[in-house]
Each structure stands twice: as structure tokens, then as C-alpha cells.
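---------- Forwarded message ----------

FYI, see the Calcium-transporting ATPase record below. Original note from H. follows.
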Amino acid sequence: MTAKRGLITDTYKVVKKVKRGGKRGKKPPPSPATDEDLSQLSERETDLQELRKFDLDWRFGPCTGMDNAHTKTVEEVLGFFGVNESTGLSSEQLRKNRERWGPNGKSLWELVLEQFEDLLVRILLLAACISFTLAWFEEGEGTITAFVEPFVILLILIANAIVGVWQERNAENAIEALKEYEPEMGKVYRQDKKSVQRVRARDIVPGDIVEVAVGDKVPADIRLTAIRSTTLRVDQSILTGESVSVLKHTDPVPDPRAVNQDKKNMLFSGTNIAAGRAIGVVVATGVQTEIGKIRDEMAATDPERTPLQQKLDQFGEQLSKVITVICVAVWGINIGHFSDPVHGGSWFRGAVYYFKIAVALAVAAIPEGLPAVITTCLALGTRRMARKNAIVRSLPSVETLGCTSVICSDKTGTLTTNQMSVCRMFVVEKVTEQRCVLNEFTVTGSTYAPEGDVCKDGAVVRCSQYDALVELATICALCNDSSLDYNESKCVYEKVGEATETALCCLVEKMNVFDTDLRSLTPVIKQLMRKELTLEFSRDRKSMSVFCSPNKLTRSSTGAKMFVKGAPESVLERCCWIRVGGGTRVPLTSDLKEQLLGTVREWGTGRDTLRCLAMATRDSPPDPRTLNLENSSGFSEYESELTFVGCVGMLDPPRKEVLNAVRMCRQAGIRVIMITGDNKGTALSICRRVGIITEQEEEDAVGTPFVGGLTGREFDELPPHLQRQACHTTRCFARVEPTHKSRIVEYLQSLSDITAMV
């Protein structure tokens, strides 16, 4: 066992040596790492992960988490933890499984000590200590005066530390806001109580049976065992970067190498339930969760010295050597004067006198104000950046940003608003000679705020003048379980429910088909039609529908209706008619269907890569009382003989300021790379929109490797030398996990690039 623990220490040293390439302060100019170096590093890091797990098992006992839970059946997962899905853990099982995880923040004392890591500051501190010691033994009238010098030096060092701690403490407090992603409570089944109980999230252990419902924040990594609603949708954008909610199921995912985005039977800690209700078994808590691993990896990362810190270290080393030589020389030259009568004939007093002169010379040679000036300048830089909504956690990061050559950026919420928005839609104006004449519209606005216009051929139109748009707005408003909410404290509109449906709510407000006040349009439509029944979305039919009856006569109908929305190919497959012009309908032929699908494919695969939803209605629906609602497999039969009304296309739009920011980076010679967990097509679309990839670059890259970006799986399958080449040339990485981001940054650093991750 001792030998194994020694191997752990040796492996840590080897990996640190490979990562750093030498000792701090004596680091040679960076040179590109060879394929052998990178391959060796990858193998050693794999060994290190295994040894870390062994070390944890040796100290705390075997890990209670379950590896690759997504590949196992529900029965296998429950059997692994020895838990009953209905009753949960017993008190004895709970006691054995309990793991405690402490806070991971820096204390105030740690921040103070960090301010004294600079070599120049340490030299000054040493000089102050020596001066103070000599002043303590000073005799005569100059005793008080002798303390002035060390006091002034200490005053400068304290002022420098106060400025640094003040700035970094402010940044730490701002970062605390990010902890809102951490859940506080969870609902569990345990044998000591007959019903579900609420417990603190930190008290949940692997093996617990947890219940989640719409609006809940997932308290741990959970393997789903049962979905107690028609569907379960989860917003996991904070972890994977996906713009829309993800449909979950309980079936095993057989691929052990599946990325988090493909683990459809898993719920991840910190993500939000957008729709549905389910139960599952906890397979990981604390730092063993996917989001916990990110935090653990960040904490374990060995920080690199910034270019300024390296220069200051080199300057400090050279200065300390020169000062030492001069001081020793001055002291040595005066050895013959140690016994002069002026010193009372005492050799020792003469030696101390000239030693004090040497120390005074050393203090005079040291630029005491340099650390304070640098700290003050960096602090002023952080304040200026804070006014532009950029929080700098560490002062040296300000200087590093000025040297950055590559910026690796996430997509969702960073380059984009993380607020789905409808930007295009079409309805059918008429059908002539087996061809549809479409009325296509564009919609402005990039957030959930109901502010924007509907345009046709560049001109703003009144949607109330188009009967098809009135019916389309009605479907969007009623076939919808989400809503917009105005947050008065933040002065912004926020989603309540699923992002896609919230985008439809926002579209309805912008269309304003009844010429009412924008903030009250949706309630107006809901007053006209009463929702009787909802058939929730399911994976097999890829649609949802609602049965509605009129409270009063509407412009588009005189009786009960069934409104349907879903994937265009699925909805059109069940359509028999097309709504045209003034409200009439014509038969939907195979040629017309193919034309409509062609338009949808163009929107979904072109420059915009839009997420498309088709809207349809059944004018004479069956009586809701006759429907079998226990079996969702029969819902597609009820959603038949539909009339196609129109289609909308939406996306997570780029932020307004991003295009100009990317352009400025290009002008400054900084390469911008997108690294996201979202789909490849969506990622490439945003890259083109914000200028990370230009049309000229795509034309020039035809026939070269890695054109069109890489997914995390494709990147893994490349040998080390091609991975390094991909990091040098590729501008877009999609469907990646945090481990991929870390490896890409390491490759870029091995290519002598100063890399920033945002």
C-alpha cells in the first residue's frame, strides 16, 4: 500500500513536470510539444485519474457512485445500490452511504497570503525583517529613528496587500452569484417515512430515490427509473450548452463513450426540469457529479505564471543576485575598518555597523514602489472592466488578457442570449398548379422581451390583416404550457417553462393580431378559446396538441378545435389539408408536402440552421370524453386528418455586441474559437453569423482537413498530432464536454498560444 501511495506522488510530479516544462522562474522559452510528449501526457493523466480514485478509496473507503450508469438497465442500477424504488434507502443504508463535502472557497487569510507570493515583495519583506531586527538592538539616541526604515517598508507592503485583497474579494463576492446554479433542496423517498420528504441537497447520498417535477433544480446526478408524465424535458444548458430543453427517457444508452448530451436517461446536478415529472436513483453527489468534476478539475489545475509575473520573477532573481554580491562586497571591503576607534574599538560593533550599511544599500536598490504601482494599475484595470460587465477574479489576469492570442468561447449565453427567438415564419397564400405560393415573414428581436416587428420583404406588416397569421398566433398561444414573466427587480422578461414554447409566447405578443396592448395579447386569445385537454409531447409522434372550445365566436372558427404543433415532418405526415388565403383549405398532395418539407429543410440546414415547428389544426376533433388518455401510443390517431396552417423557425440569437467584438479581435490578430456542447449545425450557424468563420475562409478551406468544425467524438478519434493540428486550424468544436475544453486549451498552450477561455 505504501508503495502504491508513493507511486501516486511520483505520478503527480511527472505530470506537473510535463505540464510546466520546468521550474517556475526558470522556464525556458516555450517550444511546441512533440506528439510523443502529448501522448505521454495523456497516458500519464489517465494513470493519474486511476491512482486518484485508488487514493480516495484507500483513505475513505470504496466510492459509492456508479460508473456508466447510463449504460445499465433500471433493474441493474437499483440492484447496484440495493434500494427499492418505492421505499428508498433505510436508515442504516443512509448512514453507510453518507458523504460530506465542504465549501471550496478561499478564506480571507488565503487571499492575504497570495499577495506576498511575488519575489520582489518577499525580498522587501526580508529586508524589513532584517532592518527591524537590527533596529531592535540599536543603542543610543538613534533607537527610535532606526525603526522608521522597516516601518515604511512594511507600510508599503501592507498597502499593496490591501489593494490586492480588496479587488479579489470584490470579485469573489461577484462570483458567489454563480452559486445560484446549486440546488438547495431535494425530494426523496426513504424508509423512515411513508411519503416523499424534502431534505437539503447536501444530505442526499448515492442510492437515494429522488422525485423531480417541473420547476425543480436537479440536486444530484440521477439515473431515471420512471417518468410519471407523458414526457420529461430538462434544460441543461448550464452544463452542456444546448439551447433547447432535452427530451429524456429511461431506456439504457449502450455507448459507454457517450457524451453528456447523449445520455438521455440521466439528470445532471444543477440542471432544471422544464416539463414533466419523474423519479430516479442518485448515482453521484458532490464532486463526483458532472458539474462537480468541472469544479474539481478547475481547483486542481496548476496555475501558469502570467508573462508579467515571469518577467518580474526574472527581474527579482537578477536583482537579488546583484544586490547580494554588492552588499557582500561592501561589507567585505570594510573588514579592515571594523576595529576603528569610532566603533569603540569593538570588532563586533564595527561588523554590525557595516552590515547595516549593506542592508540599507540593499533596501535603497530595491524598487519598493514597483509592486504597489503594478497592483494599483491592475486594480484600476479591473474596475474599468467591471464597468463593462467583465468580472476579473485575479489581478494578474488583466495583464494576461492584454497578451492573449487565442480566445476560446462558449456559445450558449456567451456569444448568444440563451433566449430562443422566432426569426422566420411562413403561411400558404394560395396553391396553383401543384405549387404552394408562400407568404414568408421575418421577425425582429433577440430576447424574450415582446419588442420587435413582423416584416415581409423588408417592410413592417400588420399581422391582423392575414387570416392565416391570426390562426397561427392562436395555435402558438393555446398549444403552449409556458409563459413570459416580467422580473421587476432585474427589469427583464424571463421564461416560465420550456424555451421553445416561451419563444412562441413572445412571437404572439409581437404579432399582436388583435391590435391590443402588447403585454396583454396572450390573455386575450385565451379568453376567446378555452383549453379543455392537453395531449403532451411524446417521442414517437414528436408533437403535442390541445382541445379547445370557444368562449365566443372567433374569426377563424365557430366550434371546438384541436390545435397541434410539432416537428414538421411528423405533423405534415398526418395532414390532409392546407389552410390558404382567406381561410379555405385545399387537399395536401405529395408534391405540395415535398415542397413544404423542402422549405423546412432549407431553413434547418442553411446559414441560419433554424429549429422549425409546424402548426396545424383539426377542425372537427373527436369528443375529448371518448379518448383513451392512459395510452399515449394512441395519441397520433387522434392527431390525424389535420390542416396545415404554417411553420415558424427559431434560434438562440447572437448578442448584438458580439459581431463587433469578434471583428475587433480579428483586427488585433486574436483568433476566436467556439467550443460548445450544442449541435454541430447550430454551432456553425452562429460562427458564421458572428464572423468567427467567414465565407472566404470556408472557400479556402475546401479540401483541407477539419473543414466544417469537429465534434467531441471526432476529436477523440484523431491521433495526437492531428488533434494538435485541429486546435491550430479549426474554429468550431461542437458536442464537447468540459474535458475536451481542457485538452484543447492545453494543446493551444503547447503551441505557444496565450489562451483565454470565456
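H. also flagged this: The chain has five domains: 69-89+178-300, 116-170, 371-403, 421-651, 656-757.
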